[in-house]
Amino acid sequence: MRGWIIPPPKGPTKTREEFEQERTAKVRWLVRHGYLKSERIKQALLKVPREDFIPRLYRDYAYLEVPLPLPGEHATISCPHSYPLFYEPLGLDEGHRFLEVGLGSGYGTAVARQVVGPGGVVVSVEIDPVTLEFARRNLEKAGYHDLILVKGDGGLGYPEQSPYDRIAVTAACIEIPPPLIEQLRIGGRLIAPVLEGDTQNLTLLEKGGQAIQRQVVCEVLYVSLRGIYGS
Ligand SMILES: C[S@@+](CC[C@H](N)C(=O)[O-])C[C@H]1O[C@@H](n2cnc3c(N)ncnc32)[C@H](O)[C@@H]1O
Q1: What is residue 147's three-state secondary structure?
Q2: Where are the beta strands (DSSP E) in the chain?
Q3: Distance CA 105, CA 78 (A)
Q4: Which one of 21, 69, 207, 226 is least enclosed by Cβ atoms within 10 Å?
């Protein structure tokens, strides 16, 4: 993973209680550093045990601010601050229909499920079959049985469940895939890392009735989007 120093693999040693303490401390840290403001997102991050979405040999590093490798090609679980970094500007909230492009470990999907609650819908598309199966197992073990997990090129979206209130693309693209903008409802928001030269800008798009507004949130470093709209 370019630009990140990944700690070496090792057998897990931490107990449930230790992970729980780390999770609470991480949520406090996210609030203190201004990443986390929404009470629903905060409760979701406190609820979902991130360590259960990480391969055994990296599990002890669950709450470190580094992405960690996952089964499959070029798949990673993003660092902990990435989730409020995406979900806060999106304004992800109760009742939303949410599409995620890049399921990875399934952790972000579980957090989104907690945020949107039973009145919302969560769809996640993953291109890598090995990564998809890893996430599916994690989510089932964690008790999430009402997610729509799709194998395919997420750049094409998933029109069957559209329109979406919110879309998050968790891999870097050259341009925001047009099918995703089409599948966003009027008034909806999409967030994605977009390549500009050597820089990836986390870009927030809002689809108005007449015009589309874009703004850059910050610089980020993500794995590349694969598929038709790949970088
Ligand atoms: C940074 S990881 C996602 C992290 C994930 N949100 C999590 O919580 O673990 C990016 C993921 O996007 C997937 N991906 C890349 N291109 C894709 C595409 N065109 N469609 C769907 N998934 C894609 C990768 O296989 C990888 O699993």
Answers
A1: coil
A2: 68-69, 76-77, 97-101, 121-126, 148-151, 164-169, 184-196, 199-207, 212-220
A3: 9
A4: 21
What local confidence, expressed as pLDDT, does residue 74 receive? 86
Identify the three-state secondary structure at position 39. helix
Q: Tell me, in angstroms, the distance from the centre of ligand 1 to residue 226's CA.
A: 9
- 78 is known as an active-site residue: yes
Q: Which two tokens stand for residue 54?
A: 């990480």
Nearest-CA residue for ligand 1 atom 27 is 104
Query: Rounded CA gap, 105 and 50, in Å?
Result: 9
The total of other beta-carbon atoms located within 10 Å of residue 13's CB is: 8
Give the pLDDT confidence score for residue 2 in this predicted structure: 56
What pTM value is reported for the model?
A: 0.97
DSSP secondary structure letter of residue 223: P
Which parts of the chain register pLDDT below 50?
none
> Residue 226: CB within 6 Å of ligand 1?
yes
Q: Please, are residues 112 and 143 in contact by the beta-carbon 8 Å criterion?
A: no
Reported as a single tens digit per residue, the pLDDT across 75-117 is 999 999 999 999 999 999 999 999 999 999 999 999 999 999 9
Amino acid letter at 8?
P
How far, in Å, CA of 3 to CA of 193, rounded? 16
Q: Which residue has the tokens 């967030």?
A: 191
Contacts of 227 (CB under 8 A, 6+ apart): 127, 153, 154, 155, 156
Confidence (pLDDT) at 230: 87
What tokens were used for 160?
A: 């069957």
Say yes or no: CB of residue 90 within 6 Å of ligand 1. Answer: no
The residue with tokens 């008034």 is 187
